Amino acid sequence: MRREWCACRRVVNPWRLKAAIVSLVCLLGLSKLAYAEPYQLGHGYDLPFLGLNAGGYSSVQGSDINGVPSKLSLQDLSLFLRKDFTPDWHFFTEIELGQPLVFSPAGLSASSTDFDIERLYVDHNLSARTTLRIGKFLTPIGRWNQIHADPLVWTVSRPLTTATAFAKNATGLQIYGTWPLADSSIDYQVFLDNSNDLDPTDGHESVYADPETQPNPPNAFRQGAGARLKYRSLNDDLQIGLSVDHFEMKNQPGYKNLVGADVFYTHNRVEIQSELVYRKDENFAHKTEWGGYVQAVVPLLEHFYGVLAHERYKAELFDEPVNSNIVDITYRPTPPFSIKLERRQSTGAVQLAPSGWFVSMALLF
Question: In which band, very low, low, confident or very high, does the pLDDT at 210 lie, cut at 50, 70 and 90?
Answer without folding.
Answer: low
